Amino acid sequence: MRTRTRELGMSLIEVLVATAVLALAVIVALTIYDKARQSFKKGENATEQQEAVRIAYDRLTADLRMLGYNTNPDGSPTRPDEQLEVALDHAIIFRGDFDADDPTKNNDVESAFAGGAFNVVSTGNDEVVGYVLEKPDGTGPDTITFQADVDDQPRDGNVATVTVNNVVLNPTSPPYTLYKISLSNNVGICCSGDFIVRTPVAENVRNLTFQYYDATSTAPIAAPGSTETAAAKTLRNGILKFNVSLIGMTKDKDINYNDTSDPASAQYRKFELRGDVVPRNMRMKGIQDINASTATPSKPATPTVLAGHCGGLLVTWAANPTADQVTQYRVNYGTAPGAILGTKNVSGSPFFLAGLTTGTTYYITVQAQNGAGNVSVKSNEVSAAVANTNTPSAPTGPTATSSLVNNVQVNWTAVTTNTANVPAGDPIAPGIRDLAGYRIYRGDVSGFTPAAANRIADETVVKSPLEPPHIDNTTVNCHTYYYKITAVDTCGLESTASSAVSGHATTSIAPSAPTNVQAFRMSTTLIAVTWTPVTTDVSSNPVTVAGYDVYRSNVVNKTDPVSMVVFPTTPLASTVLPVYNDNAPPAMTSLQTVYYMVKAKDECVNYSAASSLAQAICQFSGTVSFTTPANGATIAGVVPVTVTVTGGTDTYASVSIVYTHSVNGVTRSFTSVTPDSVCASGGTCWTDTGWLANPAGAYTITATVTNSSGCSSTSTISVNAGSAVGCCLSVFPTTTSTATCAGGSTKCKEVSYYIGDDRCLTSVSITTMTIAWVDYTNTKPAWQTAQFNATNLAAAGTWTTAYGSGTNPTGTATKSFGAGAASVPYATPTTAANATKVTYVFNNFTDNGNGSNRKVDVFGTNQFVFTLLDSAGNPSGITTTCNLPSLTVN
């Protein structure tokens, strides 16, 4: 007999309890993991930020310690170099010999200043170094200008104005990027734009601050700035010590952190490095050789001045005796007798003095200088008026060859002469001295006439030493162009044109296949075939299509699968237009049909792939097109889209417009059965005024128009949507330039004006305001807040404010509101009834009284940053900045 043992296991209650315990354990483990991950991320952010600040600070202070090194090795008292060129609160530019120990660079393009104990200038343009802040996208609202001897090679001792754009001198809206800047050794691009070489040093910077100390100050002195007054230069030259502060901020916010002392970056953790820097070479320079000869060369002969070249005079003179040991001459010039406007250091006669103003009389003297640096007295003074009496010769030997896709290289023989020996006294006549560059013209036929409308490049870009040749990168593949070239002098006097030369960019890349092919059976004897024109090849390069081949299939039943459709190898017809009328279709019953397909061919005779097949199914007589926007247009904000049907006799019942984003898919569909009452281009049209082109990016817009018979035709365009629009706001009325004082006891403590939005087609939400005013009353009114329609935007004290010093100081106030503090509704036209009242509130008067001595403050900055609101009233991400005109207290 067998005994059955008891089966062992867990009850249902035990299973449920075990499961609950396991789930609780998993939740606890995930919570611990998430906290650990957050802690690691916070630590990673802080470590990354601190390391970036340390590296940037070390680099900045290392360069700053080199300030002044070797800037004047021979102690020349006439050298215009400043060791400290710009000294601002949040930016600095200085000079030092940074490559003194580099054997390959220590004399690179640092040409001689003749005379003295040393034969080179130790610091070139690339050793004028600065540190500035810019926005992360490389922009900034401010400009730094200073003067330095950087525009000649070899250097001539004359200063030029250098302009550094796109910097931030009032860092109130972080983050910023710290840039190291220097100047280019290519003096041909002096003294702005590409002449300023920018190297990013650190991202996510909150602030960069410099404090300056002279030999006697215990507290920082005011930043000496960049002006060229004697007082400013003396202040800069007297600085002995700098206190440098660099503050970095984390890349990401810390929601558990709130720095109330810094509202602009309250939820970002900061890390500051601060310290003193004492440049040991500041104010140091070499000593001139006291044992050198003090004998001066004899007075040079009276020069001869010859006019005839644009913007310059040819100066000639007899050389000094050999015994004078002259190493160079100085040609002095000015616009009044005895006055020196500038000096050029030259090796000898003759010398073409360029850069002068045509029509102006100049007074010229010459001085000689020997190897010891001793300079003679001036020669007798002569004068002449600058005149342009010659014409450049026409360029010769033009050629045009294909170099790259969509590129044609245009070449010619460089022009070296004028058309005649003018001026006759010039020893190199007819050699040209005043060539500015060339103008290039392009046409579609060889006999075209050069004109401003067909000029593709001018002397501002087509000039020596880089051109000729010139690359025309605006060509369309396979299309033949004709080019003519002229030479232009610095007065704009143009030569006759060269002979025409033809060229085209060759490619083997096939055109894109035609799209949107449609076939309409208009009658038993007519089938109309249409498609969208092809403008690019399969690599998205522009291409000119020479024509289209249209193919027609055999007759098939409408119920047959497409696989049974057969096309002949020979096209039915070729056409240059994106339309073909088949006037002899085969006989078909109501159950039968034919298909059409189209191939494009470019002017190089590359064939595209076949289009999709189009079945001839119904009758639609009009042509559907987009009136606005244009195909390929760049748009932003709310964009009215108008679809028009022209040339037809049908009754058109409705339109459907579908907006498809390249990443997000369909973002909007619009349907209307009511045409516009008036069509600017005639025909029947519908306008969708509600499309907010958001998000930014590429869109395909497809319009389908359906006639009363139920037959539809489509048209498609592509546009690119940006994330910024133009300014939508304007002061109302637009003729005003004053802000009105409030009445009663608050008179002129509150000043108001009106603004309206009549251009954005949607309401806008203010995200940032920046106000700046000049305190002409000298009452120093402190900013309290701003109001929209009598409602405070933010409490007093939450705005970032500042005040300058001295008489008529400038006050500033700025505030970022995040998602927006107030809205300005769209209304057209803007009227008194729908305008928004903006009020600035102060604690003191901005108007100091009445009468002839009355003074009022001027609001020179009234800046609003905003985002467009979508139809639901939510911020769209499409932004812009509005700078309203200056306003005076009334």
Biggest beta sheet summary = 13 strands, mixed
Can you count the helices? 2
Overall spatial form:
globular
- How far apart the termini lie comes to 118 Å
Q: Which percent range fits the helix content?
A: under 10%
Overall structural class, as computed from helix and strand content, comes to mainly beta
Number of strands: 53
- Average pLDDT value? 89
Task: Outline the low-pLDDT stretches.
Answer: 1-5, 109-119
Structural features, described:
It is a single chain. Residues about 1-5 and about 110-120 have low confidence and may be disordered. The strands form twelve sheets. Strands 41, 42, 43, 44, 45, 46, 47, 48, 49, 50, 51, 52 and 53 form a 13-stranded mixed β-sheet that branches. It is built from two helices and 53 strands. The protein has about 900 residues and is mainly beta. Helices cover about 5% and strands about 40% of the residues. A hairpin with a 6-residue loop joins strand 10 (about 305) and strand 11. The protein is globular, with a radius of gyration of 37 Å.
